[in-house]
Amino acid sequence: KAAKATFRLTLTNEQARNSQNVAVAGEFNSWDKEATPMTKTLEGFEVELNLEKGRKYQFRYVLDGATWINDPYRPTVDNGMGEQNSVLDATL
After folding, report:
1. How far apart are CA 41 and CA 32, in angstroms?
2. Is 75 helix (H, G, I), strand (E, B) or coil?
3. With contact defined as beta carbons under 8 Å apart, do 59 and 24 qualify?
4. How far, in Å, are 26, 46, 51, 67, 71 from residue 56 at the CA level?
5. Least C-beta-crowded within 10 Å: which of 15, 25, 39, 49?
6. How far is Cα 59 from Cα 71, in angstroms, rounded to an integer?
C-alpha cells in the first residue's frame, strides 16, 4: 500500500468570500468541483486530504460551484492557461 500524506486545508469565511459552499478540485480528483466538498465551520471551511506520497498535486478551491481561487497559504505554479494553481507537496 502506498504511503499517504495528510493535508489539512482551511479557508476563513473572509477568504471564501462568504460563500455557502466550498470544494477542493485538483489532480487528486480529476478536477471534479463536487468530489471533495469542504466542511463548514464557524470560522470558515476545512477538509482533510490523504494523498499518495511522492508527488506534488495542483489544486484550487471552488466557491459556490463557480469561482475558482487559490490557497493563500500554499505556493502556486503556472497552470499553462494564464492562471495559477496552488500546490500540495507530498514529496517531503
Report:
1. 22
2. coil
3. yes
4. 11, 20, 10, 23, 15
5. 39
6. 8
In the numeric block, the cell 468530489 is attached to 35
**pLDDT of 33-68, one tens digit each?**
999 999 999 999 999 999 999 999 999 999 999 999
Q: CA-CA distances (angstroms) from residue 7 to 4, 12, 91?
A: 10, 16, 12
The three three-digit cell numbers of residue 34, written as one number: 463536487
Question: Cβ(45)–Cβ(11) under 8 Å?
Answer: yes
Whole-structure pTM value = 0.95
User: Which cell numbers hold the place of 67?
Assistant: 469561482
Spatial distance between the Cα atoms of 1 and 60, rounded to a whole number of angstroms:
27
| Distance of alpha carbon 8 from alpha carbon 18, whole angstroms | 20
